[in-house]
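Weekly sync, protein design subgroup
Attendees: M.S., D.O., the rotation student, P.L. (late)

Item 1: inverse folding check
M.S. brought a backbone from last month's batch and wanted to see whether the design step gives back something sensible before we order anything. D.O. pointed out we never logged the input encoding, so this time it goes straight into the notes. Structure tokens as presented (58 positions):
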């Protein structure tokens, strides 16, 4: 949550999410993780800013 998509920048006129919205998204993921403790989510994205799910290598 601190760069472009895994497939790169948009080429069709769309724009990536602004940094202030990324901060909101990060908090939303944290809130969701706390509200759903029985759901296992594994983050396999190297360098991910998400710190609310365990990291594993893909």
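Designed sequence read out in the meeting:
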């Amino acid at each position: 949550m601190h760069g472009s998509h895994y497939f790169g920048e948009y080429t069709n006129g769309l724009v990536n999410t602004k940094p202030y919205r990324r901060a909101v998204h990060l908090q939303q993921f944290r809130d969701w993780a706390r509200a759903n403790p029985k759901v296992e989510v594994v983050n396999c994205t190297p360098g991910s800013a998400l710190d609310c799910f365990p990291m594993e290598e893909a």
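Discussion: The radius of gyration is 13 Å. Residues 1 and 48 are 6 Å apart (CA to CA).
Action: P.L. to compare against the previous round before Friday.
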